[in-house]
Amino acid sequence: MPEIADFVPIVGESVVADLRALAGRLRGRRILNVNSTAVGGGVAEILSRMLPLLHQLEVDAHWDVIKGNERFFHVTKKMHNALHGGSEPISGEEFAFFLETNRDNLQGMDLGADIVFIHDPQPIALVEKKDGGRWVWRCHIDFTSPQAGTWEFLKGYIERYDAAVFSAPAFSRPLAVRQVLIQPSIDPLSDKNRELDEEAVAGICDRFGLDRRRPIITQISRFDYLKDPLGVIRAYQLVKRHVDCQLVLAGGGATDDPEGAQVLEEVKGAAAEDPDIFVLFLPPASDVEINALQRASTIVLQKSLREGFGLTVSEALWKAKPVIASAVGGIPQQIAHKYSGILTHSIDGTAYWIKQLLQEPEFARKLGENGREHVRNNFLITRHIRDYLLLFLSLFTRGDVVYL
Ligand code: UDP
């Protein structure tokens, strides 16, 4: 793990000094994070980087993961899809099972903390045991158009919290509790994002059979319909008629996402006849591989249909890569169109811009460079920790003023 001081050359002395000052004000407060998976997906990614840094700042932070069986994660994935605008309804029985699992978890968990920080819908009903501490619900998902029934169900729980945190202004909704905007972040010193030498990148590309002499277009994502991997293949096929290139679709699963295997099979089927499409199933802890694949890419895609934030966008921008991503959810916060990347709305648009950027490498390079600076200023873990510390402090103040 990096030392907190290692961030000084990247973000400057004053940012790190601020963190130390804010953390000092929280000394003695116990903070408990709860989510539904220890590996896979953005939430686990952030918590695994943030907790050790909080400890270095002497913040008494903890992380617990709720347990659930296959049925529970089937229901929560359905809820996830419904909150992302899906039409499949959740039955009363499914909501009841969801609550039963949350209540089962309450039996074995120690929720005695000054701040209980609950991530996403899966553990949301733990708030039934709220007693004393401040409770914050952290929403990492794209709330642009949630299905009404599931939203109403969740709302009843969200309003029992002291505050709700969203990743983009567009996700805020009429709620009786305080809402806070905090964007996620990446850790520039993690294995996924640190500098890698050319030898390491070349070695990993060789291992996967990639040809570095031809353009490489990449999307790193869990195999999830909402990441639109089949749309990515269609866009690549439109480009491939004109420009010789390769496509990499790389990702693994998350323990709270039961749909991954089915999506992977469909993607493999769609890619079967083209040896230039590389469908790579990555085991957990493939951070260096992801880092190398992003660095080896000519263009990085994130063609999501919905996206809470899309850490993979910041990860690629930090590597100064030109990124073409859908203008959905949290992504436009990371990309200003034609300045720090390209925003698209369709398969055709994605194909068009892949061709454009392959033909205009100087423009593509500039997009990546601007993107890297945008990430440095807005989406690094130091800014994220600062926002959380401020939020936590604000929970112990009266009125709107936080006294440092
Ligand atoms: N990721 C990973 N392994 C994979 C696929 C994704 O480590 O096989 C990482 C990816 O690099 C990023 C996070 O998981 O850090 C995904 O976060 P994002 O916000 O892009 O999407 P989510 O999976 O949370 O919907």
Determine Rg (CA atoms, Å).
21 Å
Low-confidence stretches: none
Largest sheet, in brief, is:
6 strands, parallel
Output the structural class: alpha/beta
Q: How many helix segments?
A: 15
CATH architectural name of the largest domain: 3-Layer(aba) Sandwich
Ligand inventory reads:
uridine-5'-diphosphate
* Order of helix and strand elements from N to C terminus: HHEHEHHEEHEEHEHEHEHEHEHEHHH
**How many structural domains does the protein architecture include?**
2
CATH fold node name of the largest domain: Rossmann fold
What does this structure look like?
- The protein has 404 residues and is α/β, with parallel strands linked by helices.
- It folds into two domains: 4-185 and 380-395, Rossmann fold; 198-378, 3-Layer(aba) Sandwich (Rossmann fold).
- The chain has 15 helices and twelve strands.
- The strands form two sheets. It has a six-stranded parallel beta sheet with strand order 2-1-3-4-5-6, with helices on one face. Strands 9-8-7-10-11-12 form a six-stranded parallel beta sheet, sandwiched between helices.
- Strand 4, helix 6 and strand 5 form a beta-alpha-beta unit.
- Helix 2 runs parallel beside helix 15 (381-394) and helix 4 (70-83) crosses helix 5.
- It is globular.
- The model has no long low-confidence stretch (mean pLDDT 95).
- The structure holds uridine-5'-diphosphate.
- Uridine-5'-diphosphate binds at residues 41-42, 45, 192, 220-222, 251-252, 282, 286, 290, 309-312, 315.
